[in-house]
Specification:
The complex is a heterodimer. By secondary structure, chain A is an alpha+beta fold. Chain A is 31% helix and 24% strand. In chain A, helix 3 packs antiparallel against helix 4 (86-93). Chain B contains 20 helices and 29 strands. The radius of gyration of chain B is 27 Å and the shape is globular. The chains are: A alpha+beta, B alpha+beta. Bound molecules: flavin-adenine dinucleotide.
Chain lengths: 262, 763
């Protein structure tokens, strides 16, 4: 770790002011950032902690949607979304381990856009809106690629609004060491449409599986997926699984998620 | 003597300390003001160092010292690590020097190249980044086997040794004359030891003497190595081991960092501290296993083994480790023919250098490897011969009436009731119910297999040990030459002394790991600790009983030959006096007989013991994903007389968990350039609690005749049995699909691919 300054603002306005200065980066739960600092892979001059800002914490139902503020931890989401959006609560409950869930936040996860992160799949499948300090961005336009998002310098994630599906399931095939997603599928079933998103598998990060969405919107059944498979191009190949394996596991996870809901 | 049979499950007294954060590990006791060390490590797997400029680093803030091979040697130190080489028929194994700090050439990623010592760790790291290091890459070689660029000029073709044992002509002839011959190639994957506490140490100068505190498996080896490296007298050196968070063989070997830290402390006259980080451990810790064996079993028409041949290629890593050359050769041979009446056996082992960290002992060291090969080959043989695996073993067991039995590899087993233990195992693991369990799994879309391993272990390590008993005013110290790495020694040794002498356990304090207090000891390793230490304690009890008896006799004016000690009290003829050992100690103190109050006695054995038993594993495989779970695990062991059944069972649980790790999840992967792709726990998968089923432990003991307690060592047995049991279970589950050559670790992708290939072939 290189030396850095740590600021602990208590209001969003204060935090944004600090982040507008050169060399400042936001720090949320630190579950991604601290390990990279320890390995000396990042060299911020100042970290602005978002963990002491009350207005960034909380979960509320807004009509047909669930709004989760950016500083909400995974553990808080497990409890807060349990009755309203159990599929999302279940997803949050399977992120990392208790220590990670107690510290890590949805804002940090969404901003980081790790190709194996869980929330992006839920956001894409439900058609969520990402709230930032400056604007609102549709999930489809927010996740741009490997660790890449629509966020500009100094802009932070303040919340995510998820339309609540009738039913949803997250089937996560875990990478055996990290327990991140090796290939995971979020299926969200709404009145008139079905959303399907895949994470862990693609070099471009989480993505919507539109062929699966179309097939399931027409007929929500495992049989409707007959013959459907994910192309291998652009999928991740590493020591835990080749691209073909990830493609196949995504298919298996999709079918299991649908079977659980059908 | 009947007290040995008490076999009480006494709870571990040290656990309160460990569980309440009162354990004292290296990092808890570093003296204030210590300098911090950081190692610059080889960034590539193989290459010539063309430039190394440390001048900027030396000038950097807070830096006290930068050491490289050149400055290390210039300071008068010997830039070479100690190791042993194997004796061969025509000479000995290769002995290329292993530097403390890389000297002109780097041979594996993570090899220490320079050490920076500074006031703070951050300063040392900053300075390390200022060292300009240029390396001209050479091609890397990962074998194991001949090929690649020579890593050492002393070892053409990268061959370190070519060792064999057995009568080749006789074995080949017997195989040729066999009814059936089964040949299988069995890789045994490399594992990282990953103890919970990484390697670390601090070294301080105490009035001209050097004190190294490190987390090891004993203090005496390091003491000699420091003396040789720094050109000091052993008497000028004190080595201590505080609480140690797991060793598994890794911490039995002195690593280069310790010698570099000792050199720095001596040069600077200040305390220097280093604690490895997890990734440093993955890169530079001695590795385990890493071999591939081809096993050939010949059978007669009745399924009896006619001859056994094993040809092994093993990876030694970039350099000889302390014992590297012995593991897949001599140690492997100790139990190579297992529990079977095999009279013709041939072992051929070749060790090769590669561009990975050195390989050394890892829980079991050679014996898990040998049993894995034999027992997995037996699993294949049962399948190929169409004989029930339990039956095939029964037909080949050494019969109980042939003991003591000298095996084909020249090892004499004292006792063995293998068929009896196997029958118990068959009951305990409910083999009869397997088909029903399998049907249940299949109804849920899963494959299920049952695997058996009948293992035998050979206890290793020094065959002598010392025990010193010090009668203080308030407590009795028991000084031991073994070293706890967390196994519960403080409990076992104190309890045993208490049982033997009547001294209340609460008054006994076990002292270990200080070369100034304890002159010599054998440390922990090879499952030797309890057998050897208790043997020494027995000798101490006898010695104390005799010398106290003589003192009493003189005092009371009776014939010393008539004074007896009955494990609690001394009895004198015609006297009401029946003092306890502590009471006699008080009398001796009052009489000024200090010579009686501190006594050292030596225990030695001519032979070690041979724990054995059956592991029965059941695996369940999800054929759609390849995910494999060990769902049932039953161990039936013969550990002779159990000293503390609870701790023995705990050792088995831990050993089996480590075996499950190697068999299912643990995998070390290097890329072509020698970079380690599994250098953190995000990529190296240790088994988690959910990966380990409840392990049923049963005991069917036949006392060893090689030690007075009748016990058999149990520290490594769990790992020895697990690999083949799980591999055979995989075979059982997958063979019906046509998969018979799948190797550990059985990761989801690997299992899925194996199943997928048969589907593609069938389509
Ligand atoms: C062992 C382990 C297992 C894990 N397993 C999983 C898993 O299974 N699934 C999963 O999804 N994740 C997993 N994670 C990641 C975890 O969810 C992290 O918490 C998350 O990715 C980052 O959130 P954080 O709050 O910790 O962010 P931090 O680490 O604090 O920050 C991450 C990055 O985002 C930036 N940032 C932080 N907050 C904001 C914000 N509000 N707006 C803009 N930028 C911001 C930071 O500057 C930094 O670049 C795991 C992590 C660990 C250590």
């Amino acid at each position: 770790m290189y030396d850095f300054e740590l600021a602990r603002p208590t209001t969003l306005a204060e935090a944004l002011e600090m982040l507008a200065e050169e060399g400042s980066d936001p720090l949320s739960g630190g579950q991604t950032l601290i390990p990279s600092l320890r390995a000396r892979l990042a060299m911020p001059e100042r970290l602005v902690s978002l963990m002491h800002i009350d207005e960034l914490k909380g979960i509320e139902q807004r009509g047909d949607a669930l709004h989760v503020k950016g500083g909400t931890t995974h553990a808080q989401l497990v409890h807060g979304a349990y009755d309203i959006f159990p599929g999302l609560a279940s997803l949050a409950g399977r992120i990392g381990d208790p220590a990670v869930r107690t510290r890590g936040t949805i804002g940090g996860s969404v901003a980081n856009n790790d190709p194996a992160a869980c929330y992006p799949a839920a956001a894409l499948a439900t058609g969520a809106t990402i709230h930032t300090s400056q604007r609102e961005v549709a999930a489809d336009d927010f996740f741009l690629g490997l660790f890449e998002t629509a966020l500009e310098e100094g802009e932070i994630v303040t919340g995510v609004t998820f339309p609540i599906p009738q039913a949803s399931a997250y089937e996560k095939f875990i990478q055996p060491a990290s327990h991140f997603a090796l290939a995971a599928v979020f299926v969200a079933r709404f009145d008139t449409r079905v959303g399907v998103a895949v994470t862990g598998a693609s070099e471009d990060g989480a993505f919507r599986w539109k062929e699966a969405e179309a097939a399931l919107t027409e007929d929500f059944s495992v049989a409707a997926l007959e013959g459907l498979s994910l192309p291998e191009q652009g999928l991740i190949a590493d020591v835990h699984g080749g691209a073909d394996y990830r493609a196949r596991m995504a298919g298996v996870m999709l079918r299991r998620a649908v079977a659980a809901l059908a | 003597m009947e007290k040995f049979g008490k076999s009480q499950p006494v709870r571990r007294v040290e656990d309160v300390r460990f569980l309440t954060g009162k354990g004292r590990y290296v990092d808890d006791i570093v003296p204030a003001g210590a300098l911090q060390a950081f190692f610059l490590r080889a960034p590539v797997g193989h290459g010539i160092i063309t430039e190394m400029d440390t001048s900027m680093a030396e000038e950097a803030e807070g830096v006290a010292l930068v050491l490289t091979a050149d400055s290390f040697k210039a300071a008068g130190f010997v830039n070479e690590m100690d190791f042993d080489v194997i004796e061969l028929e025509d000479g000995e194994g290769a002995a290329p020097p292993r530097p403390v700090l890389a000297d002109g050439r780097v041979r594996f990623v993570g090899e220490p190249v320079a050490m920076i010592v500074a006031e703070t760790l951050a300063q040392a790291r900053d300075a390390a980044e200022m060292i300009s290091l240029e390396v001209d890459d050479l091609p890397c070689w990962f074998g194991p086997g001949p090929g690649g660029e020579d890593i050492h000029p002393e070892a053409p073709g990268n061959l370190a040794y070519d060792w064999s044992m057995g009568d080749e002509a006789a074995v080949e002839a017997a195989l040729a004359a066999s009814d059936r011959v089964v040949t299988v190639e069995l890789p045994d994957n490399r594992v990282a030891a990953t103890p919970m506490e990484p390697r670390g140490c601090y070294v301080e100068m105490e009035g001209g003497r050097l004190h190294m505190c490190f987390n090891g498996q004993g203090v005496w080896g390091a003491k000699d190595e420091i003396a040789a490296c720094l050109g000091m007298e052993a008497s000028e050196i004190r080595v201590t081991n505080p609480d140690v968070g797991g060793g598994f063989g890794l911490k039995g070997a002195t690593h280069p960092e310790q010698l570099a830290i000792a050199a720095a402390a001596k040069m600077l006259g200040r305390t220097v501290h280093w604690m490895g980080e997890r990734t440093e451990g993955f890169l530079s810790d001695n590795g385990g296993r890493d071999l591939v064996s081809t096993a050939t079993l010949g059978f007669d028409a009745e399924g009896r083994i006619t001859a056994y041949k094993v040809e092994t290629l093993s990876n030694l890593g970039a350099y000889n480790s302390n014992y590297g050359q012995f593991i897949q050769s001599e140690l492997f041979s100790k139990v190579a023919p297992g529990t079977y009446a095999i009279d013709k056996a041939l072992l051929k082992a070749k060790g090769y250098y590669t561009n990975s960290a050195p390989v050394d002992a890892y829980r079991g060291a050679g014996r898990p490897e040998a049993i894995f090969v034999l027992e997995h080959a037996m699993g294949h043989a049962a399948l190929q011969l169409g004989i029930d695996p339990f039956e095939l073993r029964r037909r080949n067991f050494i019969p109980p009436d042939s003991f003591p039995y000298t095996s084909a590899t020249g090892v004499t087993y004292d006792v063995g009731e293998f068929a009896k233990v196997l029958s118990r195992a068959e009951e305990h693991s409910d083999v009869a119910g397997f088909e029903a369990r399998k049907a249940e799994s299949e109804a849920a879309g899963k494959l299920r297999g049952l695997g058996l391993c009948y293992y035998i272990e050979s206890i290793l390590g020094d065959k002598q040990e010392f025990a010193t008993v010090v009668f203080g005013e308030n407590e009795v110290e028991l000084h031991v030459g073994t070293q706890s790495n967390g196994q519960g020694h403080e409990t076992v040794f104190a309890k045993f002394l208490s049982d033997q002498t009547g001294i209340p356990m609460s008054r006994i304090r076990v002292v270990m790991g200080d070369s100034d207090i304890i002159e010599w000891g054998g440390g922990t390793g090879g499952s030797r600790s309890v057998t050897m230490q208790n043997t020494a304690t027995l000798a101490a009890k006898d010695g104390i009983a005799e010398s106290f008896g003589a003192f009493l006799a003189e005092r009371e004016g009776v014939d010393p030959a008539e004074v007896t000690f009955d494990d609690e009290r001394f009895r004198l003829p015609g006297s009401n006096l029946s003092p306890t050992m502590l009471e006699v100690a008080e009398m001796a103190r009052e009489a000024g007989r200090d010579d009686l109050l501190k006594q050292t006695h030596k225990g030695s054995l001519r032979n070690m013991s041979f724990p054995n038993g059956a592991h029965v594993a059941e695996v369940e495989i999800d054929p759609e994903t390849g995910v494999t779970k060990v769902v049932r695990y039953t161990v039936t062991d013969d550990f002779g007389v159990l000293i503390n059944p609870m701790l023995a069972e705990g050792q088995v649980h831990g050993g089996v968990a480590q075996g499950i790790g190697q068999a299912l999840t643990e995998r070390v992967v290097f890329d072509e350039e020698g970079q380690l792709l599994t250098a953190t726990f995000m990529d190296y998968a240790l088994p988690r609690a959910e990966d380990v089923p409840m392990i049923a432990f049963h005991h069917e003991g036949t006392p060893s005749t090689f030690n007075a307690m009748g016990m058999k060592g149990c520290g490594e047995a769990g790992t020895v049995g697990a690999l083949a049991a799980i591999s055979n279970a995989m075979l059982g589950a997958l063979a019906p699909l046509g998969v018979s050559d799948i190797a550990m670790p059985f990761t989801p992708e690997r299992v899925w691919r194996a199943i997928e290939e048969t589907r593609v072939a069938a389509a």
